[in-house]
Amino acid sequence: MKKALIALTLFLLGCSETAITSSQSLPISAQMEIKGQTIELEVAKTEKEKAIGLMHRNSLPKNKGMLFDYSKKPSEDISFWMKNCRISLDIIFLENETVKAITTAPPCKQDPCPKYSAKVPVNRVIELNGGRANEIGIKIGDQIKISDIN
Description:
By secondary structure, the chain is an alpha+beta fold. The chain is built from three helices and nine strands; from the N terminus they run αββαββββββαβ. The longest helix is centred in the N-terminal third of the chain and has 14 residues, at 2-15.
C-alpha cells in the first residue's frame, strides 16, 4: 500500500504541469568517486525533491549530478522518467555502491514518457549529464564510493 501511494504521488507530481514549473537547486551534500573522478552531488531526500529531480534544468555542470537515496528502505526496482527534463541524463542504478545498470535517457518530447529502470532491486540512483558515465568509463559491476560532505 505504501509503495503504491509513493508511486501515485510521484506520478501526480510528474504529470502536473502546474505543480512543478521551475527547477530546484539542492545543496551539494555528497560526492561520488570513481576511476579518479570526483563528482559533487545534490541529494534528493524528500519524495518531492525526488519527484522534481533535475526537471526544467537547461544544463548541468560536468562534475555535478544528483543522488536519489532510497537506502533507508528495502531495495526495489525503481523507475525514472524524463518528464519536463530538458537535458539528456545518464541514470546510474546502484545497489549500495555497486553499479547494477546504466542508461542514457534523452529528454521526453511527447507523452507518455518512457520509464527507465535497472529491472533489478536497487537502493540508490545517480543522474549525470548524458554520456558522462561512458566518458568516465563506468561499467556494470563497478564500485562508486559515495560520501557525505559535512
